[in-house]
Amino acid sequence: MVKNKVLFTHPYFLKLDVKQAETGLPYPPLATLYAAALVRDKGYEVSLFDPMFVSGANELLGHFGKAALLGSVPEYFVVYADGFNYLTKMCLTNMREATFDMIQIAKGRGCTVIISSSDSTDHTAGYLKAGADYIINGEAELTLVELLDSLQTGAPVAEVKGLAFLDGAAAAVKHTTPRPLMKNWDWLPMPAFDLVDMDAYRQTWLKHVGYFSLNAVSTRGCPFHCNWCAKPIYGNRYTVRPAKQVAAQLAELKRTYLFDHIWFCDDIFGLKPGWIKAFADAVEEEGLQFTFKIQSRADLIQDIEVASDLARAGCDSVWMGAESGSQKILDAMEKGTTIAQIEKATQLLKSFDIKACWFIQFGYPGETKEDINKTISLIRRWIPEDIGISVSYPLPGTAFYEKVKSSMGDKANWTDSNDLALMFSHTYPPLFYRRLHRFVHHMHRHDLAIQFKGQGWGGLRKHLSAYYYLGAALIHKWRLPQIASV
Ligand code: SF4
């Protein structure tokens, strides 16, 4: 028997995030598609309103209008964030406001509204006040299925673990017993990629970079304790799927969607000893031809075998949280890595032609001019293939947030992913970090252009671009008198 209709969506509107829209490399909402596949497996009729390419929440009206014409208005509206994508973990206010608008639209059509996201976990009362009926906290698939079943059968929702809702005449926020994290999740069905307009994703990728990348995940959670890192959904436990299963699913995905490249959006790829080797073996057995990028830590790439197995499996880039060139700052962050490890991991990856890419963070409390200069020197010495620069962002639930919250103003979240506002008092004003961001990016692009080995017109253009980047970097540096020397 087909149970009631469930309309899934997620709270990430690409067009409301200008920088990402310009970059044009969107990924389908993986966690949303995992949940939709499970709910469909349980007998519900599911559909998806994917906000990735729409202009705003108002397009949901058209979606409901079409559903009404077809006589299939959903009973449940589920806003289920892609908790694997770092963009949703940023809790951007543009997305929150659009989600509030969607809640109003869905409530106006008589839907029961259910939300699962990092932001709704942090701001449960706000979402309930905006009209949501239920907030799911933590890992959400099982909670969602139990909640839907309870609503269908009239069983008491207060017995469903992992929920928050408004209770009683006083409309106080009631939290049910927290739901324990799943011990394993390799039994979950394949994400429901058939629900997205895959051609729209493919065409956007091809237009911007000439190849098509999809997303996959082999683990959930991260056991490390960097004290600024918020992990409201999957927490500190680390569960990993068998390497053979991951390779087999990728082979199936490749046959169906013909991707060229995969982004493994695991917080930490291949932490379990021997997993990367097993994955490389499984990729070879499947005859899979693809390249992929991962996120990892410098201290996990210290052996030649690890780098060699990554290369054998098809890894073309590794993003590491290098964060800072100052050991003092790494220690203050409780990062658990050393400058020597960052250098060794970078050297090892480069020796296997894997791009070593670094996340850099400026503005951590206690960071001085000397620490900033150490970070710039490290980048210039190693010239990673790419860098992602951010400023420290206090998110609720972290030790860092507790440390700085007394000096925070009204603004507690970024508007979009390019906001980069420093939201707590620090040695330098926010404008300093914006200029620093531009200076380091331009200097890094100059260094990349100088070391470019290509010949012909392409090589000449690259080398000429070095002069442009150097000029731009020097202008930014001139505006940064606080940086004495780099
Ligand atoms: S290793 Fe990465 S995911 Fe894990 S706590 Fe540190 S920053 Fe967060």
Description:
There is one protein chain. The chain is an alpha/beta fold and 486 residues long. It folds into two domains: 5-175, Cobalamin-binding domain (Rossmann fold), CATH 3.40.50; 211-427, Aldolase class I (TIM Barrel). Helices cover 42% and strands 15% of the residues. The chain has a seven-stranded mixed beta sheet, sandwiched between helices. A six-stranded parallel beta sheet has the order 8-11-12-13-14-15. Strands 9-10 form a two-stranded antiparallel ribbon. Helix 12 links the parallel strand 12 (291-296) and strand 13. The protein starts with a strand and ends in an 8-residue tail after the last helix. 43% of the residues are buried. The model has no long low-confidence stretch (mean pLDDT 93). Bound molecules: iron/sulfur cluster.
CATH architecture classification of the largest domain: Alpha-Beta Barrel
Gap between N and C termini: 68 Å
> What structural category characterises the helix and strand content?
alpha/beta
State the helix count: 18
Radius of gyration: 23 Å
Q: How much helix, percentage-wise, in residues? A: 40-55%
How many domains make up the 3D coordinates? 2
List of distinct ligands in this structure: iron/sulfur cluster
User: Largest sheet, order of strands side by side?
Assistant: 2-1-3-4-5-6-7
